[in-house]
Amino acid sequence: MRDPAAFGPTTTTDEVLDDIDLTGRVALVTGGSSGLGRETARALAARGAEVILTARDVPKGEAVAADIRAATGAAVSVQDLELGSLASIRRFAERLLAAHPRIDLLVANAGVMACPYARTSDGFEMQFGSNHLGHFLAVCSLAPALLRSGAARVVSLSSRGHHIAPVDFDDLGFERRPYDKWQAYGQAKTANVLFAVGLERRLGARGVHALAVHPGAIVTELGRHLQAEDMEYLRSRARGMQFKTVEQGAATSCFAATAPELAGRGGLYLEDCHVAAIDDAPEAPEGVKSYALDPANAERLWEVSERLVGERFAFA
User: Fold this and answer.
1) Edge-first strand listing for the sheet containing 274-275
2) CA gap 61, 64 in Å, rounded
3) Could you give the domains of the chain?
4) d(CA 26, CA 104)
5) pLDDT value at position 237?
6) Residue 138: what pLDDT?
7) In the chain, what is the straight-line distance between the N-terminal and C-terminal CA atoms, in Å?
8) Are 1 and 231 within 8 A, CB to CB?
């Protein structure tokens, strides 16, 4: 029997979803071919959801989908998606809307962390471009399917890394300052929270609620670019934070996507399967920074994002 009051850092996906019936619900998980995305997809499928997972490596995604189907008996399909390409995102959204007119749960899980300086195919700094702009365009393009649900949730994977930096609206692409991979990561993770705030303002009253989550520290392919000095940097900032298993790391995403306790709520930041408090203390070991929930910052980011992707979203 699930007991939300007892949920915390060691809670697993299956504990979060115990007694949750997702039969008839359609869930989309980006970056579902490994790590947290794979576990999120498996856990949702195990509770009866039809799951669509995205992957850049489609054969790898198909192998994961086959494993989940065999383990759960659920319907699991794969869609090709490259979040670093606006053209790829638009093709993906068109295909998905044609095949799935309704989406109930969308977990924006895919991402890149602390990579060397690079640009997306459209010229955006890679971490901001993939982690934020890619999901911004994908989710907004899929809004018609979310609205048809009547009670949809969008989960945006942020990180405690948002403590590192707010969004620098004067230099999003590190054109005026030297590139710092951790500042870029922090900026992108702050943008993930602000996107949830902006989406909630636009769609919350119409039944689509958006939440951002910090999954915790987990060893996955997300850390493929990390060197020994990067791990030292993370340990210096962790201030007692313990590493989680993948099942524990994906639990907060599953909680945000399904918990009855969160019905009708959005524009929030969650960690360890609970809503986090604002804490602006410089050495705060947890919580969310006020700049990441600031409505003015969210509106400014939304306007900038629409300009950068070249599309305005009225959500008719």
Assistant:
1) 76-80, 50-55, 26-29, 105-108, 152-157, 208-214, 268-271, 274-275
2) 5
3) 4-308 (3.40.50.720)
4) 5
5) 54
6) 98
7) 41
8) no
Count of residues in the chain: 316
* DSSP letter assigned to residue 231: H
Which pLDDT belongs to residue 156?
98
Query: How distant is the alpha carbon of residue 311 from its chain centre?
Result: 21
> pLDDT tens digits, residue range 200-233?
999 999 999 999 999 998 875 444 545 556 555 5
* Collapsed DSSP state (helix, strand, coil) of residue 264: coil
The pLDDT of residue 243 is 84
2 and 18 in contact (C-beta within 8 Å)?
A: yes
Q: Is 31 exposed, middle or buried (0-12, 13-18, 19+ CB in 10 A)?
A: buried
Calculate what percentage of the chain has a pLDDT beyond 70. Answer: 93
Q: Establish how many alpha carbons lie within 13 A of residue 43's alpha carbon, considering only the half-sphere containing its beta carbon.
A: 30
Report DSSP letters for 101-170, one per residue.
Answer: S--SEEEE-----SPPS-B-TTS-BHHIIIIIIIHHHHHHHTHHHHHHHSSEEEEEE--GGGGS----TT
Q: Which of 179, 185, 233, 291 does the annotation list as catalytic?
A: 185
- Round the average pLDDT of the chain to a whole number and report it: 94
Q: Where are the alpha helices (DSSP H) in the chain?
A: 13-17, 35-46, 58-72, 86-99, 126-127, 135-141, 143-149, 181-203, 228-238, 246-249, 251-258, 290-293, 295-309
Instruction: State yes or no: pLDDT of 143 exceeds 80.
Output: yes
Q: Tokens for 150, please give them.
A: 């009547």
185 is catalytic: yes
| Cβ count within 10 A of residue 163 | 23
Identify the helix (H) or strand (E) that includes residue 243. strand 243-244
The mean pLDDT of 193-205, rounded to a whole number, is 98
Q: What are the angstrom distances between the C-alpha of 24 and each of 149, 262, 264, 276? A: 11, 20, 20, 30
- Residue 240: the pLDDT is 58
